[in-house]
Amino acid sequence: MEDTNVVFAVAVACLVAVTSTLVYFIRYLSSKPCENSQPEKNGVANKDPIGESKTIPQPKKKNVFEHKKISKSNFSHPWLSKSLKAHTGNVLDADMSSSGKYFATASEDRSIILWATSDFSTKNNTHNKGRVEFDHALRVCWSPDSKALVTYKAAANCVEVYKLTKSAEGKFSGFEVVVTFPVLHESGEIAGMGIDINGRYIMTCSTDNELVIWTLKGEVLHRMNTNMGSTHAAVLSPCGRFVTVCGFTPDVKVMEVVFSKTGSFEKVNRSFDLKGHTSGVFHVSTNTDSTKMATVSKDNSWKMFDTKIDYGKGQEPSLLFSIAFDTRGEKALIALSPDGRSVAIASSTDVFFYSGVTGKFVKKIEHVHEEPITFLVFDPSNKFLLSGGDKQVRVFHNVVGYLATIEDLEQKKRTASHTAMRDRIADQIAEAQKFLASLGEC
């Protein structure tokens, strides 16, 4: 009997032990996250591209997001009017409409955004976005009537013209392809593109020195080699008369696109050269009427030229001044304001401001963008300078332009013959000085 009780006690003990182990094992399994569990408050289960689940601690994800957000919006400067934010990819190029009312930006995010320039000095952020199907635009230009955009597509490697479409309510609804040009720049990258202000032709140029003049329908009018070794930039003057190219060689070539009195294309005429640099020229810019041209070079200088000449009579452009500028071995961009009074140079992520009248250095603004600056452009009113380099566009007040305007007005005031005129000029000076004072510059 005792043996039976002992056996029974051992059996009960074993059963209890097995049951306890089983309960513990079940609780252990239930405490582990299930593969198909939903996101929790303190841990987010995210599926990767192949469908597996990974648990990512929420605090870590939040910190990374906050860091990126701060780094993208932390830039500030007294001269900054605003930042244009809507692109999700880097902004590659931009163009101002001839009327000055609209500003277009092209981005890697396969979109082109149209901005209202009237918002540049306000808190409004009016814009319309259009898509570039299955591609993105490397270059963008407004048509003279501001009803179409000329783009250069990256993957397709060609020019494509878009008409701006409107809905039944008269609002912007997107882009409609009007014409796609044949592919000609097969080997080199695009170095420049522009459209004549009179709508007579489109210019494209590649880094392997191929310059092409097109009709607006995509027909080739002229095709030539720039003979620059490597073309860094090709710029069409705002007046539509000249095409200026610069590159590996130290001389900048200026060519005139000649049309007859009846409007038919005749030739591309070699007009004159901008001489004086001792190394390759990175970029060139022209004022509204092509009477001034500015260049920036690898030889660590930038130069201003007087190009108000009659080259047909053998006149040569004269050098107004040459200013030392350390490019730090990196490609630089230069922008000359429409009135020729202001100069801005971009090197890496920094912008430098100079007087276009004297060449005097005025201001350096550092770390304007997180990545190297891709474009610089003044608006037609000379009041703003715009730059792009990451996903945002910076809109700066052209303080240099205001200072030059005040100096010019003071000169006119001294020579004014009538009291009423002197009083009117004095009011304009006071208004400009008041604005500069609001920026801490006067």
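Second entry:
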Amino acid sequence: YCMQYIAEDLDKYNQYKEHFSTALRSKHDKKFEGKFVNFRTLMEFIETR
């Protein structure tokens, strides 16, 4: 499985990271301990025409 989050802009991403990501990560780690690998990547959408 893969999880992906999309933020409207960098400020919204930083708000998520500051206020929610630690608790969510901790909850996930406890529930699936030893059963997953993870990596975090910040990417930007680039519109082409």
